[in-house]
Write a structure and sequence with these properties.
This protein is of the alpha/beta class. The chain has one domain: NAD(P)-binding Rossmann-like Domain (Rossmann fold, 3-Layer(aba) Sandwich). It is 39% helix and 29% strand. The chain is built from 2 helices and 3 strands; from the N terminus they run βαβαβ. Strands 1-2-3 form a 3-stranded parallel beta sheet, covered by helices on one side. The longest helix has 12 residues. The radius of gyration is 10 Å and the shape is globular. The chain starts with a strand and ends in a 7-residue tail after the last strand.
Length: 56
């Protein structure tokens, strides 16, 4: 299953870790490049920099 998680903080990271471990295709959306880099380096996820509250 493809899953989009908005926010790569503690909760978003935990969900990404769990779901990617279960074999799901996880994409993380966050404004923080540092949070995304940490998740991409440690987990099998795709990180996208952006604002999840904005339509643009």
């Amino acid at each position: 299953m493809r899953i989009l998680i908005v926010g790569a903080g503690q909760v978003g990271y935990f969900l990404s870790e769990r779901l990617s471990f279960e074999g799901h295709e996880v994409t993380l959306l966050d404004r923080s490049d540092d949070n995304l880099r940490r998740a991409e380096d440690r987990l099998n996820v795709l990180g996208i920099a952006g604002n999840g509250a904005s339509a643009e």
